[in-house]
């Protein structure tokens, strides 16, 4: 059975790149009938925070990603937080000590920096020289007696090439001389990422490691550790990096890059799931608006492109609009919109919110658009925009509004049909039509020259508020 994992560090908000990694692991697990494991890599004691872990889990659930084992639900291969697995790591450090695969290195940070500078000045890639590799027992005891701190380094075999088949990149070949002996355990006794990730993946029986290509340089080191511990190596698939529209690596300078920021900006989870799935993968047909189930059914990991994926913000916004307008049930959409209505100070009951959403959803691309699109339904004492005032300063326009008010002032309710009937009557009585008929009414009721269907607006806000707005306009321009 396929077993994949998503292993984020809880040191900040969920970045789009990490979200895409989680998404592809999830889709692959579901497509193959396998399992997804969530593991929290919280060994960075200074930066890891429980609040970030909670936010991360919440964002993953919001995206529609479900896992089969994890810190919140347990499983057969826990614990699922690295901070709770220290005893396990220590056992495998001892195995590497016993097998002679690691050794003590007493080189100071200053010595290592000097080595690095020298290598760069000579045009060589910086790598550890192996200075402490062959220290004698007496030399080690002397250095320890002097209280000199040390790390444990992995003894990398000289001149070896690590070759592996990457599902996305094909055959990858890396000379170990490019990186040399690397640290396994820090001077404070804490194991490093490349070591603990191997132990975790092996013990959790991970069959496929799907991650960003920024981890590609870690893979040969990890393969050496797999072999030293006698673990079976998983298949590797390194996802292409995500670029901004300017073809530089996606970062904060490109605008919002966290899932949380897009949530706050009014994006819906289905559009985010769909949009992230298209970063490096494409369905076989031309249709790119696909449900989660359709994506899982069509997905083949071998179809992921090796070339960098370009994040198209405009395309995601368009996709989001499609889901808002066409794909989400009105009641469901209204529930999601309520926090936005309330955040903009638009207070009402659910039924009223629902009527407004029905009226404006076709004009929305994100739920943040509610602020402007819903304004006519909530704000009665609005400002008349400069370019709109001309329609009521005009004598004919003023008379249109005056006559409209005369026809509604004694009504107890107003429906769409009433609006259409009244405007037809005014057209006949005053001999006006088109813009000269409808624009004065729109300006009187909204203060602007474009927006929602007037017939819908009057029915939703009700006749008393219609009267109030008409009276207000007549007083203002009278």
UniProtKB/TrEMBL annotation:
It catalyses: tRNA(Glu) + L-glutamate + ATP = L-glutamyl-tRNA(Glu) + AMP + diphosphate. Gene3D superfamilies: 1.10.10.350, Glutamate-tRNA synthetase, class I, anticodon-binding domain 1 (1.10.8.70), HUPs (3.40.50.620). It is found in: Cytoplasm. Keywords: Aminoacyl-tRNA synthetase, ATP-binding, Cytoplasm, Ligase, Nucleotide-binding, Protein biosynthesis. ATP binds at residue 252. One of its GO terms (cellular component) is cytosol. It comes from the Bacteria. GO terms for biological process: glutamyl-tRNA aminoacylation. A motif ('HIGH' region) lies at residues 8-18. A motif ('KMSKS' region) lies at residues 249-253. GO terms for molecular function: ATP binding; glutamate-tRNA ligase activity; tRNA binding; zinc ion binding. Catalyzes the attachment of glutamate to tRNA(Glu) in a two-step reaction: glutamate is first activated by ATP to form Glu-AMP and then transferred to the acceptor end of tRNA(Glu). Monomer. PANTHER family: GLUTAMATE--TRNA LIGASE, GLUTAMATE--TRNA LIGASE, MITOCHONDRIAL-RELATED. This is Glutamate--tRNA ligase. It comes from Persephonella marina (strain DSM 14350 / EX-H1). The gene is gltX.
């Amino acid at each position: 059975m396929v077993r994949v994992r998503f292993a984020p560090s809880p040191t900040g908000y969920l970045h789009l790149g990490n979200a895409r990694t989680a998404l592809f692991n999830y889709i692959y697990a579901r497509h193959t009938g396998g399992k997804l494991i969530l593991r929290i890599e919280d060994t960075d004691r200074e930066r890891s925070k429980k609040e970030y872990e909670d936010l991360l889990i919440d964002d993953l659930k919001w995206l529609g990603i479900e896992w089969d084992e994890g810190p919140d639900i347990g499983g057969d291969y826990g614990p699922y937080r690295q901070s709770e697995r220290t005893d396990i790591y220590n056992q495998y450090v001892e195995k590497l000590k016993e097998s002679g695969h690691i050794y003590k290195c007493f080189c100071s940070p200053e010595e290592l920096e000097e080595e690095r500078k020298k290598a760069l000045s000579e045009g060589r890639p910086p790598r550890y020289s192996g200075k402490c590799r062959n220290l004698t027992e007496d030399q080690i005891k002397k250095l320890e007696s002097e209280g000199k701190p040390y790390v444990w380094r992995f003894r990398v075999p000289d001149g070896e090439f690590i070759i592996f088949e990457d599902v996305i990149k094909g055959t990858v070949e890396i000379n170990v001389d490019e990186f040399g002996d690397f640290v396994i355990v820090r001077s404070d006794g804490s194991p490093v990422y490349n070591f603990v990730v191997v132990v975790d993946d092996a013990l959790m029986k991970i069959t496929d490691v799907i991650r960003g290509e920024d981890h590609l340089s870690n893979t040969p080191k990890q393969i050496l550790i797999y072999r030293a511990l006698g673990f079976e190596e998983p298949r590797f698939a390194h996802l292409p990096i995500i670029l901004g529209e300017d073809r530089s690596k996606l970062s904060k300078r490109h605008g919002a890059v966290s899932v949380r920021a897009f949530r706050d900006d009014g994006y819906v989870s289905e559009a985010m799931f769909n949009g992230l799935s298209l970063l490096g993968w494409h369905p076989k047909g031309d249709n790119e608006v696909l449900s989660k189930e359709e994506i899982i059914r069509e997905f083949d990991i071998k179809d992921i492109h090796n070339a960098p994926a370009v994040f198209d913000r405009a395309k995601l916004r368009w996709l989001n609009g499609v889901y808002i307008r066409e794909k989400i049930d009105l009641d469901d959409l209204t529930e999601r919109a309520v926090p936005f209505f309330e955040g903009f100070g638009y207070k009402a009951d659910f039924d009223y919110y629902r009527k407004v959403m029905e009226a404006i959803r076709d004009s929305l691309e994100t739920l943040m658009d509610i602020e402007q699109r819903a304004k006519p339904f909530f704000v009665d004492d609005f400002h008349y925009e400069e370019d709109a005032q001309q329609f009521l300063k005009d004598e004919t326009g003023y008379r249109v509004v005056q006559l409209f008010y005369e026809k509604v002032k004694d009504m107890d309710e107003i429906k769409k049909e009433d609006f259409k009937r009244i405007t037809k009557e005014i057209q006949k009585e005053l001999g006006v039509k088109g813009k000269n008929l409808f624009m004065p009414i729109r300006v009187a009721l909204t203060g602007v020259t474009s927006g929602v269907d007037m017939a819908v607006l009057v029915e939703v806000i009700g006749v008393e508020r219609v009267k109030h707005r008409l009276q207000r306009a007549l007083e203002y321009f009278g």
